[in-house]
């Protein structure tokens, strides 16, 4: 059996090695390392894939969130609502821009923002909502957008873990996550469903004015060289990464199929076990399984984590400390917030290996060992 990886980017690369190597060499020979042709090609092709008007590439997913908030003209003290149960990048940029993070609960099944909690969190200072499409499952965007419209708020979708996911509206129409709010953001960190061989990110919008402003912000606030109209930053997707991503974009749908197939195997092994809650798949979300995350009941989660490690099976806890309990947010006095669902999840979730290269032998070994620990 091949060694089990949490994310097997090496084997994935081996399958597309000749075309990737050729594309990288072309960039090297052209010496157009910044804003080369591959950046424009990838940007166009990603816009087509997502059916969105504008794609603005940038250096990483955290920058994408920061640039989105900068473009909306939010002012210090403005409140931005986001889940506490997410990676810190979603919330740290709020504080970085001197905005006020307001944490809300997630749904215990989908792990995504709870629309009821969102509505309750509204104040006169609320200016934006940042839903997170977590682990590959879409947030309930229909309800979120309705709340945003009611209160005249901006919506920035954090789509770092769910690129390629279809959101299905009640009438059957579909939109890709990241293209429903005013702005969507994503990360191309190597472990993502569409991952580079380094850092990278992108921002999406159908709004011409916002797109123009964000294109300036990523490039030092300039639309014409040496003429700086707004305060910006230096956040670019380099040409080599764009060339690699453009190749991998062509395989994204098949990568999603492979992830869903692995998830189906896990589901079959664990569904119905009284101590395991398998990932929920809401009817509105075509889950793309960036992570396969179990919720354990009455199980020593940390003990299982160590048991799997001892058996050379990697596993991860996403996330052991929620945003409202992070020290960096002490200034906002959020640690006393009552968030029972979030706290319940942080004590019980564990993510198993999930990537495009898992084979049946590996999956069988993983599930056998999980059940061995639980049933002992």
TL;DR?
The chain has 376 residues and is an alpha/beta fold. 38% of the residues lie in helices and 15% in strands.
Structural notes for this entry:
The chain is α/β, with parallel strands linked by helices and 376 residues long. It folds into two domains: 9-249, Aspartate Aminotransferase, domain 2 (3-Layer(aba) Sandwich), CATH 3.40.640; 252-375, Aspartate Aminotransferase, domain 1 (Alpha-Beta Complex), CATH 3.90.1150. The chain is built from 13 helices and 14 strands. It has helices spanning 9-15, 17-30, 37-50, 61-71, 89-96, 115-120, 141-151, 208-217, 239-249, 252-270, 301-310, 340-346, 360-375, and strands at 54-58, 79-83, 100-104, 126-129, 154-158, 166-168, 174-176, 183-187, 201-205, 222-224, 227-228, 276-277, 292-296, 349-352. The strands form four sheets. It has a seven-stranded mixed sheet with strand order 1-9-8-5-4-2-3, with helices on both faces. A three-stranded antiparallel sheet has the order 12-13-14, covered by helices on one side. β2, α5 and β3 form a beta-alpha-beta unit. α2 (17-30) packs antiparallel against α9 (239-249) and α10 runs parallel beside α13 (360-375). The longest helix has 19 residues, at 252-270. It is globular.
Element pattern in H and E = HHHEHEHEHEHEEEEEHEEHHEEHHEH
Instruction: Return the CATH class of the largest domain.
Output: Alpha Beta
As for the CATH topology of the largest domain, it is: Aspartate Aminotransferase, domain 2
Total DSSP helices? 13
């Amino acid at each position: 059996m091949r060694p089990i990886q949490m994310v097997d980017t090496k084997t994935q690369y081996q399958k597309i090695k000749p075309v990737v190597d050729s594309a990288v060499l072309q960039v090297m020979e052209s010496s157009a390392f910044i804003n080369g042709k591959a950046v424009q090609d990838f940007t166009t092709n990603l816009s087509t894939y997502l059916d969105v008007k504008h794609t603005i590439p940038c250096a990483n997913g955290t920058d994408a969130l920061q640039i989105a908030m900068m473009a909306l003209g939010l002012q210090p003290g403005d409140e931005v609502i986001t889940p506490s149960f997410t990676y810190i990048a979603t919330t740290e940029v709020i504080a970085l821009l001197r905005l006020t993070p307001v944490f809300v609960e997630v749904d215990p099944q989908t792990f995504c923002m709870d629309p009821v909690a969102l509505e309750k969190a509204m104040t006169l200072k609320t200016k934006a909502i940042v839903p997170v499409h977590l682990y590959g499952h879409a947030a309930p965007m229909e309800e979120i957008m309705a709340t945003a419209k009611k209160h005249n708020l901006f919506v920035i979708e954090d789509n770092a873990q769910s690129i390629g996911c279809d959101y299905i509206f009640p009438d059957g129409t579909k939109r890709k996550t990241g293209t429903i709010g005013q702005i969507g953001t994503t990360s191309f960190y190597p472990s993502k469903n569409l991952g580079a061989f380094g850092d990278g990110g992108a921002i999406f919008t159908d709004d011409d004015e916002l797109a123009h402003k964000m294109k300036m912000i990523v490039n030092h606030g300039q639309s014409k060289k040496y003429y700086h109209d707004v305060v910006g930053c230096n956040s670019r997707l380099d040409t080599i990464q764009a060339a690699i991503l453009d190749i991998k974009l062509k395989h994204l749908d098949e990568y999603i199929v492979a992830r869903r197939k692995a998830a189906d195997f896990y589901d079959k092994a664990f569904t119905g076990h009284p101590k395991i809650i398998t990932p929920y798949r809401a009817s509105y979300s075509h889950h793309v399984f960036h992570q396969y995350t179990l919720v354990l009941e009455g199980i020593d989660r940390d003990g299982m984590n160590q048991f799997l490690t001892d058996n050379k099976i990697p596993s991860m806890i996403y996330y052991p400390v929620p945003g409202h309990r992070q020290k960096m947010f002490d200034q906002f006095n959020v640690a006393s917030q009552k968030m029972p669902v979030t706290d319940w999840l942080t004590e019980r979730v564990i993510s198993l290996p999930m990537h495009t290269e898992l084979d049946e032998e590996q999956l069988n070994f993983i599930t056998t060992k999980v059940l061995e620990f639980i049933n002992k």
